[in-house]
């Protein structure tokens, strides 16, 4: 069914859709990494519901800013554009660095 | 157990001398700024506070790496003191920055300035270090989790800084750039001496705090061995109700 | 750099309170820290004195006990 595939894949032949997909992947990845990291810390504390978002929000804010700036041109009312490469790159850099760091320290959290 | 107080006297002397020289340079030598006039003198106080605070957070993270690798709790205490000091310096930087903002821009805070907001975010992140620490009761686990948090947060500081530099607002005075900055020579000298004085002050206070903590631990240990286990009140920092 | 006449900023007279306030904040932080440390040190010193007294008492008691032992 090539037409059905066209419906699914068609949009992603456009460059702005590809970048938007990259942005969505980036923000999804960073939320997963930071969420897991913060939860692993928070379950061992007494105020576990409180600690998790308190620690998580500052760590997420640069990713939030980068995603918002990247999505900005897509949602502009007049003359919308493509997500800027700069913010996609910042998001990707943040993802990579944080994933590596979280991977490096995670053993120490799960020692028992 | 190492003796912490060894170089303390020379460090204090060096700090006092440098701070006196820095103050003299700020008020007697550095020229008045063309745009801001006398108000610009706060720059020599505010920027060193902010820089030393951020470096202190990174220093705390490095010490925490030492703890994770060697399992020696002395490193964890060093990291704790470093982060605590850096937080105090950061609050001082924030307050002096607000005073400077009020004097030169007319309002105490500006949410559209990314430098201000990112510094606030870093401070708020490290402000959660102590509540996190003291809500974990088991001492060994407390030290380990605090070190992990310190490492990740210390990695966050330069990332945050880079992200801010890539943003394109120029409201915050961009005095220090990678190209050496656009300060005239006399101002640069004054700034460097102020920065050195602030860094020495941080080092002195850190060493001082470590020495005091160490002394207290030794005394408690002696007391426990001499007077028995129940003569020593537990340090009681955890959230446990007792 | 005689820019005083040209600068649109606050004149030194009106600017001085802000500069003084900023440096005073810094001084206050350092002084408060010194005060906290002084209190902590006096407490540690009191503990050390108490330990010393206890040690002396035990040494005196041990001597006293030794004196009562018959010398054989």
Structure description:
The complex is a heterotrimer of chains A (112), B (242) and C (72). The termini of chain A are far apart. The model of chain A has no long low-confidence stretch (mean pLDDT 88). Helix content of chain A is 79%, strand content 0%. Chain A is mainly α and 112 residues long. Chain B is mainly α and 242 residues long. Among the domains of chain B are: 1-30; 43-171. Chain B has helices at residues 8-29, 43-70, 73-104, 114-127, 129-134, 139-166, 185-227. The longest helix of chain C has 57 residues, at 12-68. The chains are: A mainly alpha (112), B mainly alpha (242), C mainly alpha (72). Chain B binds chain C through residues 31-39, 41-42, 45-46, 49, 88, 91-92, 95-96, 99-100, 102-104, 184, 201, 205, 208-209, 212, 215-216, 219-220, 222-223, 226-227, and chain C through 1, 3-4, 6-12, 15-16, 18-19, 21-23, 25-26, 29-30, 33, 37, 40-41, 44, 47-48, 51, 54-55.
Helices, strands, pairings?
The complex is a heterotrimer of chains A (112), B (242) and C (72).
Chain A: H1 2-9, H2 15-42, H3 48-75, H4 85-109
Helix pairs in contact in A: 2-3, 2-4, 3-4
Chain B: H1 8-29, H2 43-70, H3 73-104, H4 114-127, H5 129-134, H6 139-166, H7 185-227
Chain C: H1 12-68
Attribute tags:
heterotrimer, A: mainly alpha, 0% strand, C: 72 residues, mainly alpha, 1 helix, disordered N terminus
Give the overall silhouette of chain A. Answer: elongated
Tell me the strand percentage band of chain A: under 5%
- What is the percent of helical residues of chain B? over 70%
How would you classify the helix and strand content of chain B by structural class? mainly alpha
* Main beta sheet of chain A: none
Oligomer: heterotrimer
Q: Provide the residue-averaged pLDDT of chain B.
A: 84
Biggest interface found: B-C, 38 and 31 residues
State the low-pLDDT regions of chain B, or none. 238-242
Mean pLDDT of chain A: 88
Computed CA radius of gyration of chain B, to the nearest angstrom: 21 Å
Q: How much strand content do the residues of chain B show?
A: under 5%
Specify the number of helices of chain B: 7
